[in-house]
Write a structure and sequence with these properties.
This protein is of the alpha/beta class. The protein folds into 2 domains: about 140 residues, Quinone Oxidoreductase, Chain A, domain 1, CATH 3.90.180; about 140 residues, NAD(P)-binding Rossmann-like Domain (Rossmann fold), CATH 3.40.50.720. Helix content is about 30%, strand content about 30%. The chain has 10 helices and 15 strands. Strands 3, 4, 5, 6, 7, 14 and 15 form a 7-stranded mixed sheet that branches. Strands 10-9-8-11-12-13 form a 6-stranded parallel sheet, with helices on both faces. A hairpin with a 2-residue loop joins strand 1 and strand 2. Helix 1 packs across helix 10, helix 2 packs across helix 3 and helix 2 packs across helix 8. The longest helix has 23 residues. The two termini are about 15 Å apart.
Length: about 325
């Protein structure tokens, strides 16, 4: 094993943010009970914000970005994790306040790590990544609230993005009728290939919302927020359920209480960052069981670590569909 390893590091000075590849040693890593040889990472929306500096995601400098990774344990002082174990990391502030996955080595707390499910590779785990794991948490939230395939159509917003594509594939395999909302209508064949039954243009949902609109959806997975979420809420069936996990359009919610008090609509917030370990493990086991790996492969592309900055810029420009695995 080489004493040094390659990492992408973000620093900040009076002139702004700088992003550079550097050579580090394990002495440069932060405290933690487990050191991992990172094999794969991915690029999520939050990673795009961090690398481009479009939002203050990173809380301390210098820092290695990358909010998730998968790899093999090199050393461990944690009782439940042994050298040689394959593990997954999502969230917990990694890539924000703790060095993240865009490096050949990572050191984190053992309780932040999830064992790689049997039959899943580290590359598949990062094709899923935080976006796909969040999708599973959204599907679990709908099911926890009793939403069944026979109840009606399920809307997925931001459908061509990381959360949306995996949500479509999951819901379709589970027997739900999925409608995909996207601004990239040229992706219709791709989204239908994942399992969407039909496509709507996101412009139908992006303007100001009525307090109540014609009912349409039994459930929804929303990664967009703002007017889109307000419109979705106004269109929910009686006792419909929305799982909200993102803010691609904005963090505001210009809605009214009408859907909640007149139709019994439920809005369930889904957080992937601080989600308790047992629910994380359950989500990853469900992903291994419920996600069609052929469909996952169809929505995934691979890029080397050297290209991660370009991928982040493309993601923020809306030029990336599905999932991008970074081969570290």
């Amino acid at each position: 094993m080489s004493d040094s390893f390659k990492a992408l590091q973000i620093d900040k000075n009076d002139d702004g943010q700088s992003v550079n590849f550097v050579q580090l040693t394990e002495d440069d890593l932060m405290e933690g009970s487990v050191t991992v040889a990172v094999e794969h990472s991915t690029v999520n929306y939050k990673d795009g914000l961090a690398i481009t500096g479009k939002a203050p995601i990173i809380r301390k400098f210098p820092l290695i970005p990358g909010i998730d990774f998968a790899g093999t344990v090199l050393s461990s002082n944690h009782d439940d994790i042994a050298e040689g174990d394959k593990v997954i990391l999502n969230g917990w502030g990694v890539g924000e306040g703790h060095n993240g996955g865009y490096a050949e080595r990572a050191r984190v707390k053992g309780e932040w790590l999830v064992p790689l499910p049997d039959g899943m590779t580290t590359a598949q785990a990062m094709a899923i990544g935080t976006a796909g794991y969040t999708s599973m948490l959204c599907v679990m939230a709908l099911q926890d609230q009793g939403v069944k395939p026979e109840d009606g159509e399920i809307l997925v917003t931001g459908a061509a993005g990381g959360v949306g594509t995996v949500a479509i594939a999951l819901l379709a395999k589970l027997g739900y009728t999925v409608v995909a909302s996207t601004g990239r209508v040229e992706e219709e064949d791709f989204l239908k290939g994942l399992g969407a039954s039909s496509i709507i243009n996101r412009e139908e949902l992006s303007g100001p919302a009525k307090p109540l609109a014609k009912t349409r959806w039994a459930g929804a997975v929303d990664a967009v927020g703002s007017n889109t979420l307000a419109n979705v809420l106004s269109q929910m069936n009686y006792l419909g359920v929305v799982a909200a996990c993102g803010l691609a359009q904005g963090f505001d919610l210009p809605a009214t209480v009408m859907p909640f008090i007149l139709r019994g609509v439920k809005l369930i917030g889904v957080d992937s960052v601080m989600c308790p370990l047992e629910r994380r493990k359950a989500a990853w086991q469900r992903l291994a069981q419920d996600l069609d790996m052929d469909k996952l492969a169809a929505l995934t592309s691979h890029q080397p670590l050297d290209n991660v900055v370009a991928v982040a810029n493309d993601l923020m420009a809306g030029k990336v569909r599905g999932r991008v695995v970074i081969d570290v």
